[in-house]
Amino acid sequence: xxxxxxxxxxxxxxxxxxxxxxxxxxxxSAPDYRLEQVLKGKWPYLEVLRKDRLRDYQGGxxxxxxxxxxxxxxxxxxxxxxxxxxxxxxxxxxxxxRYYWRVITxxxxxxxxxxxxxxGVKGPELNPPLPEFKLMVPSEGVDTAFLQxxxxxxxxxxGTWASAGLHKLDKYLPxxxxxxxxxxxxxxxxxxxxMYIPGFKILIQxxxxxxxxxxxxxxLWFNWDEANARVERAMQKALTDYYAxxxxxxxxxxxxxRPSTPQDLLSLLPRDFRSLxxxxxxxxxxxxxxxxxxxxxxxPVYTELFPADLPALWNQVQAxxxxxxxxxxxxxxxxxxxYLYVHFYRSAKTLFDSRAFLGLPGVxxxxxxxxxxxxxxxxxxxxxxxxxxxxxxDLDRVVSCAATALMTxxxxxxxxGEVEKLTGGKPQNEPLKAKEAPGLWKFExxxxxxxxxxxxxxxxxxxxxxxxxxNFLEVTTVPDIRNVDLSQVNLGNWMGWAWSxxxxxxxxxxxxxxxxxxxxxxxxxxxxxxxxxxxxxxxPLGVPPYVLPFALExxxxxxxxxxxxxxxxxxxxxxxxxxSDLSAYALDLRALYRPLLGR
Length: 599
Fold this sequence. Notes:
Layout: H1 2-14, E1 26-28, H2 35-39, E2 45-50, H3 51-58, H4 64-67, E3 70-74, E4 76-77, H5 78-107, H6 111-118, H7 144-150, E5 196-197, E6 200-204, E7 207-211, E8 221-222, H8 224-255, H9 262-266, E9 285-288, E10 296-302, H10 310-331, H11 334-352, H12 363-384, H13 395-414, H14 419-423, H15 441-445, H16 455-461, E11 463-478, H17 491-502, E12 507-510, E13 513-521, E14 524-531, E15 539-542, E16 548-563, E17 577-578, H18 589-597
Helix pairs in contact: 5-8, 7-10, 10-11, 11-12, 11-13, 11-16, 12-13
């Protein structure tokens, strides 16, 4: 058993993911969301730029590396990525079941061998539900200055990986939920060496006259050496063969497009805006792949190609407004609030003025709703900030005037001019731009809290949401002892967690006996026979390591939103590249996507 604990401790020392500074920096660039191209049979995509190569290219470099600074990523449907997440869950559940039942069956051979390997007793098939979408705001991606400002008054939830707490079974049953053939491979009936001499008690005419020590909880004798050998042998089998199957299955899930041919994908695209809907497709892009230390597999996602439901679209725009306003109210100055109202209005108006909405009943109502949302707070700010006081007229004029005035203020900040005269004597710390942000940095950082959406919303507001999957080194147990949601402390939650732990302990099940000696009139004779134990059922005997350790890679997934012009977090190397260990599981995806994208 020493090798298990050595691996456990070694993995504990290494259980850290890559840091943000280690990732090659790619920028989310101009996405091709032109719906007319979709109607011509071209799949929507977005573009990312390799920053260092772009800089060399702009400097006049003509090397192949400098030329290859643009990469095109096809979009996938949110629902399809949720299905991928469900399949990743199922792959883990299959490994977890095979791991436990191999150990417990080999330990309790021959009884369990007869029940499972010979008789084939099993429970229902694994069928996890579609995982809930959860947006993660990655701490490694958020600008630290924004984070400090936003958390100054109260904590700000950055979210967790969507896969957190999901590496478990939906139900822990006393029978396997996989075909016994999956854990009985190479396992034969084994009677010798003898495992134990059961504990027993003797009754004469119903009166106890003798019992073995610690009856019924302990056998009279137990073969600890053989028990340890069986457990270690089964664990080695699971953590090599079954774990290799898990890695293979995960790779196939992540790197296989759905559908897998350009013809099937293009057949999902209709020929008019109103029928675009949400074609279900998963088109992964490996960024060196998901293995530990490599990078991740990514897929930018859409909820629908075109938002035909206008009331639902308005609800989404209003939710974006609430997200923005909550963050800027917490972290922004008066000038930054004015910037928010101006540029939110411009983004939403660009969305509603899209040609796809031209003449559609209800669009004018959305425009009026937008004016009502922004008009009063923006006018209040224009009266309070000197540089904006000259802005008057209808809302469009006010917004245009304010945008020009904010550009003036931006220039004053960059030139370190007399900003106080423009803002009424109030100090402003980098009120408009910081670092490489394409706009107000707080306005851009807030986009990390925006949910996945349709193509026109992405284009108008300048962001996109990515599905990402990657491996992390985990040091835990199976089932994961950490899988208890402390935010939902209730009896049912705790009972479910306790049952998952107790039902998967490594135990040998022994049967204590009762020998009941009675005088029967048959004619008179003495009969001694064993009977069911009178002081409890079959008893468990814990065998080291008592719980199953796990100290290897597991695949996690998340959805993250990235502002346009910002770096894509969680990736390393280059898009469409694979580490050598994954080359057997992926097609040439760049070649597959080329006829789809027309690039």
